[in-house]
Amino acid sequence: MNSHDKSRYHEVHARSLADPEGFWAEAAREIDWIEPATKVFDRSQGLYGRWFAGAKVNTCYNALDRHVANGRADQVALIHDSPLTGSISQFTYAEMLREVQALAAVMQDFGVAKGDRVILYMPMVPESMVAMLACARIGAVHSVVFGGFAAKELATRIDDAKPKLILSASCGIEPGRIVKYKPLLDEAIKLSTAKPDACIILARPQQECELIEGRDHDWAKLRSEALAADKKADCVAVDATDPLYILYTSGTTGKPKGVVRDNGGHLVALKWTMENLYGVKPGEVWWCASDIGWVVGHSYIIYGPLLHGATSIMYEGKPVGTPDAGAFWRVISEHGAVALFTAPTAFRAIRKDDPEGSFIRKYDLSKLRTLFLAGERADPPTVEWAEQQLKVPVIDHWWQTETGWCIAGNPVGLGLLPVKHGSPTVPMPGYDVQVVDEGARPLPAGTMGSIVIKLPLPPGCLPTLWQQDERCRESYFADYPGFYKTSDAGYMDEDGYVFVMGRTDDIINVAGHRLSTGGMEEILASHPDVAECAVLGINDTIKGEVPCGLIVLKSGVTRDHAEIEKEIVKLVRDKLGPVAAFKLAITVPRLPKTRSGKILRGTIKKIADGDEWAMPATIEDPTALDDISTALKNHS
Ligand SMILES: CCC(=O)SCCNC(=O)CCNC(=O)[C@H](O)C(C)(C)COP(=O)(O)OP(=O)(O)OC[C@H]1O[C@@H](n2cnc3c(N)ncnc32)[C@H](O)[C@@H]1OP(=O)(O)O
């Protein structure tokens, strides 16, 4: 018998597709509902139906209160480990609940009620978890904005979400520099038209900040007053279909998409994954080394582990340089983590600094059972290196901000399937993954095409985009009627393994961060000297891909090219943020185009990556490609 035969996966997946309502109704028994669903799946609601219609629930209750009531009060809920500040702290479930009750009461004093939006522009500190759960407790909708975004990006999100309140901090901490959040927040509020009523600011000891009279309030003062007065907000019952959070993700234009997550489906799906996909038991220590600004952080630093009664590690540090390539192994051994979830880019960085894995052998990793990778395609050399060094299963899994949890993975809890390098393994329950051609016709095994998911999507996936049903329909459901378009391309093999090979749109993946090249082109085009531009992702040994901007200057511009290129790099950092890792702007005399005017991005990318390429038959001016080759060579 091989491991394939021992896994319950095939039976479970088949049952989830044959009887989705029965399958998810059974999974829903793990959740404490205030009122049960009248319909497990109501096809008449929303863009493709809604899960757990009619049910009333509270996400914070399921993450905290019920564990405190059921014997986990003194168990550690959160370990905060920050090599960047040299501190480690812990919160039991009871302590976390007390913090959340108090902050939720403070938010209510500011008039925040069910359905109101609250933006969090926060670093990786315990208060971020407190804030997210406090929103969930009172039915407010949080929207966390990643700290590596610039003021303009924050302003766009403020204008879209129209928050009543913003919670932020004086600073984030990056290796070697303090990122002052407060000036970025002030600038963003200045740029936005939807002004919040108030801001609550966490003053970190590393950075002082000025509070604006009448608008800004000191977090620590509000907290201590609320605790002294024994203020406690109760859990507010919300509909299972009410939004828990909005998380913005790059769209194909500069305007990000506000992915909505509902309460009920999210609870059921995430709770199911902790044991069945990740193989983690309540009470065990789990570590997701992402940022709370990404969906991975929402699902597996905050909600998944707490819904499951596990202990979650929140890490404010990097895989290398804080202080060395042993940082991850120190955290695992010190806190006894049974699983680590991170991005392949982190492992590429560790491998570069410690190719022999000598740091790994300095630590006791005996509790570590599994390494999970996601956020970008896990390249086989990285997976192989991790397997050899750690000697535990290394599981790539594929998901998207929109789905909120794994589309394809290897279900440890159901029984591991054989690993095939380069594949995130098989579709998870509820996901009917298919590969189709442009006419939505299914393609045979082994043939590349568009990866789509037959509707309905399982619980936990996006019901819509924030106040943009039509954009959601057009973006995801219009091109392949009856299916969700992932915008990922790839194939499935004879065994049903999924291979995700690239995007079908302009999104690139830089160190696990999803970015729109179209959005970057809008920034480049705003430079007064730029006539035309193209941004494309080129291969990078650590980050996977990095953006490269090609610019054509307006005729008559005689300024030094290098100076203009520097200005453009700064412009992207100032407008989009450091997270874009945009460091390469190259001036070219013209952009290679087809006779119909389309920029030949694919060919440019091949040249930049040093891959084989052929002259496209439709090219307007073949010499334009020589110009590109020369310009790239001069910059390398
Ligand atoms: C499955 C669905 C999904 O895909 S959800 C997304 C999953 N993705 C992830 O979890 C991201 C994984 N990547 C990482 O955690 C980081 O890239 C790791 C591997 C830790 C490396 O970090 P780092 O060396 O800082 O590189 P980077 O490319 O992330 O950063 C580029 C520049 O941005 C900065 N930055 C980063 N984070 C922040 C932040 N929170 N606040 C302010 N600035 C930030 C970095 O300092 C870096 O700046 P600089 O250019 O070096 O000056």
From TrEMBL:
UniProt GO molecular function: propionate-CoA ligase activity
InterPro entries: ACAS_N (IPR032387), AMP-bd_C (IPR025110), AMP-bd_C_sf (IPR045851), AMP-binding_CS (IPR020845), AMP-dep_synth/lig_dom (IPR000873), ANL_N_sf (IPR042099)
Organism name: Rhodopseudomonas pseudopalustris
CC annotations in GO: intracellular organelle lumen
Record family assignment: Belongs to the ATP-dependent AMP-binding enzyme family.
Domain of life: Bacteria
AMP-dependent synthetase/ligase domain segment(s): 67-454
Span of domain Acetyl-coenzyme A synthetase N-terminal: 9-63
Domain AMP-binding enzyme C-terminal: 520-598
Pfam family, one: AMP-binding_C
Name this protein carries in UniProt: Propionyl-CoA synthetase
